[in-house]
Each structure stands twice: as structure tokens, then as C-alpha cells.
Fold this protein.
Amino acid sequence: MTQGSILVADDDAAIRTVLSQALSRVGHTVRVTSNAATLWRWVSAGEGDLVITDVVMPDENAFDMLPRIKKARPQLPVIVMSAQNTFMTAIRASEKGAYEYLPKPFDLTELLAIVNRALAEPKQPAEKPRPDDQPETMPLVGRSAAMQDIYRMLARMMQTDLTVMITGESGTGKELVARALHEYGRRRKGPFVAINMAAIPRDLIESELFGHEKGAFTGAQHRSTGRFEQAEGGTLFLDEIGDMPMEAQTRLLRVLQQGEYTTVGGRTPIRTDVRIVAATNKDLRTLINQGLFREDLFYRLNVVPLRLPGLRERAEDVPDLIRHFFAIAEQEGLQAKRILPAGMDLLKNYAWPGNVRELENLVRRLAALYPQEEIGVEIIEAELNGTGSPQGDAGPRPVTETVSVGQAVEDHLQRYFSSFGEELPPAGLYQRVLAEVEYPLVLAAMTATRGNQIRAAELLGLNRNTLRKKIRELGINVYRTTRGGSVAS
């Protein structure tokens, strides 16, 4: 363990005490202060090997001070803490040159690990911070713990060109995340090009991606540029990647391996410089087992896996999202609206099978169709009960209603089969359903036991080694915490 001198700045005396004791206990020298002026005096005098600071200080915002710190001592790592917990807080911390961002409340074990990693890393000259020349928009909304993990991951990815695979149910905001990666990343000056594999006829996907030459096929009367060419220097978002036919998968794999492609009907290789962000609401491992998706392509795309939680997993974000969508509706000329507490509670307890997209549509209906400025619980109940399935049932049940797992799965499968109309779902449904149930089951057990694998294995009735294997295969990441190991703002 590398020991060092740590400078801590926080307006909260309790947090200063906890950090001082925890850092001193493992051998670090600690100096604490409650204001930014003292911190800046220490830093400018050459003191300290690492800084831990809250964003909001009584005399200055840490984001205003960070550029001065990075200019005076570019190799000094700065860990930023904040109780604001928004996407833009994480992004601004990254842009200002912070080594790491931690939302409050934070886990002490994780903080100590970050401190040790920062002190042990060889010192590298820091990149010049990006000018703060754009308004603080909110491309992603929510302050829940689930969204904090997403924000921190995105902040780390902004200054890289690593390929990202976004997974999540329909309506969770996969394209929104892809756009945020582009608009706040290194390629923001280049184009963002999106293509939905499920919306294009299978025999045209290769032409859409790579372009075609005149006469390449019947109807090709002139040369056409593909999405790779259109996205040159920027980001190419491949949505619903699980619907890509095998022939196109092979060509995409070549692009990822060799950095070049040929147009349909062309012979000259074309070099490409794009960042790939892919997304799917399907289980690609199941498609691999069925021979419908290339395993080597999966590993090329899955460099950085990013799973978006369903809205029911972040119910505490519902009020923020509703206010956000009402504000958008008001900007579009609709009357300002608010939902009364009883109605808000009902919305927070709803299962949201359509996720954020379903919530946005509901808010738009409320803003457009109802004259009341305050929306009561009766209107909310009527709206939720009106979102029935094609069979005419009462729609998905609120999560507060006692429903067996079997009944919930049966309800879901009825809606799933009905979505195909007269057709049948793709083959392999049995394994696909089992795989979809396994992830939330293991995640729930890990969350309930606060990341304790021994207790989670006992809860699930699994061997601990078997649980470890499943955690690794499913990509589950739950930080281990203790009741006393978390510090609140």
C-alpha cells in the first residue's frame, strides 16, 4: 500500500472526522479543512499527495477551483464528492480533470481503494481541462444509486474511444446514453449516426452500413454512402444489434478487426475512423447459443458493457423524470402541471413495463388532455388502468399488489406473445426466459445481502463457486457495503 499525505475539504464536520480517522488508520497523513481557501493555500504551497473535496464549499465551488489546481499541480490527483448526484456533476468532474467522482453517500472501502490506486499510479501530465462553454443541460435524469453507477461509468468513458455495449429493456434510454457518450466525449465535433437493425429489411442492412456502388444490385442506379462513411470521425450507434443478420455480422467483425470495409459491389478497402456504440434489449449470449449471433463479434462489441436499469429498479427517480417531462411540455406551449402526492406515490409504485418511454408518454397525455393544473390520484388510476394488453386485461399490476412470480411471468408472456400478432416468437424461448429471470434473481439476492457472496449463495441455495461464476457471466456488479461503512451527506 502506498502511503501519502491526504488533503480533505468538506463543510460537514462529521464527514471530515470519518475520513480523517479512516485514512489515518491505514497509515496516511491527513489534513482537514472546511473551506476552499485553506485547501487552495495548502495545494499552492506544494502540500499533499492527493486531495479529497466536496463540490459545494461555503466559500467556493470545487469545480471553479479544480482548473487552478490542475494548472498549478497537474499531477495531483483530486477526488470529488457530491450530494448533487446528477449526470452533469459526474461529467463536469471528469471535464475539470478530477481523478474520480464519488456520489454521497459513499462507501469507505471503495474510497480507500480509489485513494490507494491514485497514489500508486505513475504520475502523468494531465490533459488540459475542457472549457466550460456550454449550458448545464440534463441529457440523463435521476439521482438514484442505480443511475449514479451509470453516470460514473459514462464519465470514465468520455475521454476514450472504447467500444460500448448498452443493454436494457425497451424504453430505458439506450440511444439517449449513446448520444451522451458522443456529445460529451472526444468525438463531439464529429457526426452522431444511428441505425436501427430491426427497422431495416435484412437484405438492405449491408448496403445501409457500408454503402453500395452503382449497379451493385437491381435498383442501385447511383453510388450511395453508408452509415460508416457518414459517421467518419464521430460515433456510429448500432441499435438492436441482436437483429443483425449473420452476413452483416461477418462484415462488421472485419471492420472492428481491421479498421476498414468495402462498399457493396466495391473492391477498394476504405479506412474508417468511428467509435462504435451498440445496444440491444436481447440476451446476446442466448442468441450465440442458438447460432444467431457470432461469439467473436460479441466480444469485440462488449468491450465496455453497460446495463441500463428498468424504471422499476429506480422508482425514486420517477418524480424527477415527471418534472423533467412536464417542463419539456411547458416549453412546447402546454399548460404547467403538477401531480398531487397520492398520485405520485401511485406512479412510484407502478411496474412500468415500458420504462421511461412509457412514463414520458403518460406525462405528455396528462399535459395535453387534462385542463387541471393539479393532477389527482383518480386521473392517474384511470390512465394506468387504461394501458391494457390486447386481450383487454387491466394492464400490468402495480408492484404493491401481491402477485406470485408465476403469475407475473404469465402476465409478461401473454403480452410478449400478443406483440407478435398472428406470428410466433423466435425459437429458443425456453432458454431465453430462464436467462432473463436469472439476472434479476441473482442481482436481487446480491443487493439484499449487500454484496455478501456467502450469504447470497446461501439465500439462493447455490454453491459459492457457482454463484461467483454466474456473477461473472451475467456481468453483475454490486459493491459490498456495511451498515456502518456508508457516509451520508
Remarks:
- The CA atoms of residues 14 and 328 lie 39 Å apart.
- The mean pLDDT is 82.
